[in-house]
TrEMBL record:
Transmembrane segments: none
Annotated coiled-coil segments of the chain: none
Highest taxon above the source species: Bacteria
RACo C-terminal domain boundaries: 1-248
UniProt protein name: RACo C-terminal domain-containing protein
Length: 259
């Protein structure tokens, strides 16, 4: 699950959305955790569409971890390899081919890998990723609507948890996982639950603060909130059906197409 909290010193609105395991490599054909050999960063030559994979530990590729998946999808989309629906555009390129799960892009050939197969990302993988990112974005926008706020009203966004510790902000906005905001508004907290538990053990004052924060919370069951399903369906595109929510990303995609 992805937990979402929006509020201030006086009140807190909370919700949880089912993001699935895609951000941990689950549900992805060659998805793995962030172990040595996992593709964790990625770039693309805009002229040849040839990839450059960066792996954990600098080892030969064995799969794709969550951070790599995010950057791969964002990069393929921004360079016109993927369309807004997450499908491959009809490009004549040796790395784009028909596979067992539909169209796929070859990230690394077998002779480049520490695996007995090519490492690919396919349209089913991308669909699973879009479902996950769409659930999170729809959760954010739905809770904001419930409290009468807009993304522009947010003064700070705090990212916590394992995935939130190493997420690439530019890619997260490009695909519509996070709203398009000034990156200076975003703070990485790391493992907040562990740090919070440790602080509570050491301080009675902190424990009282936690109890007080819980009293300020109002929970929303997203599946019962009118409009959540519509928000979710609108988020099932890259980055969203409403490109007006992502003007910078839309402009960048248009410029890449001209090139």
């Amino acid at each position: 699950n992805a937990e979402i909290v929006i509020g201030n010193r006086d009140w807190l609105a909370c919700a949880a959305c089912s993001a699935g395991p895609a951000f941990e490599g689950g549900g992805i054909t060659h998805g793995i955790r962030a172990v040595e050999g996992a593709i964790s960063d990625f770039s693309l030559n805009p002229e040849t569409l040839e990839p450059m994979n960066i792996t954990e530990g600098g080892k030969a590729p064995i799969g794709i971890c969550g951070s790599g998946l995010l950057i791969i999808v964002a990069t393929l989309f921004e360079h016109g390899v993927l369309n807004q629906s997450g499908k491959f555009n009809p490009l004549d390129h040796p790395r784009i081919r028909e596979g067992r799960s539909g169209q796929e892009y070859v990230l690394a050939w077998q002779d480049e890998c520490a695996a007995d197969h090519d490492i690919v990302i396919n349209e089913v993988d991308i669909e699973n990723f879009i479902r996950a990112k769409g659930a999170i974005f729809a959760g954010i926008t739905t809770v904001l609507q419930q409290v009468g706020l807009q993304v522009s009203d947010l003064e700070r966004i705090i990212l916590a948890g394992g995935f939130g510790s190493y997420i690439d902000l530019d890619s997260a906005m490009s695909v519509g996982l996070l709203p398009e905001v000034d990156p200076d508004k975003i703070l990485y907290l790391g493992n907040g639950s562990l740090a919070g538990s440790w602080m509570c053990e050491l301080s009675n004052h902190i424990r009282r603060d936690v109890v007080e924060a819980v009293r300020k919370m109002t929970g929303f069951e997203l599946s019962e909130v009118p409009g959540f399903k519509d928000q979710y369906m609108a988020s099932m595109f890259l980055p969203h059906t409403d490109l007006g929510l992502f003007p910078g990303i839309a402009q960048r995609v248009r410029e890449n197409k001209k090139e």
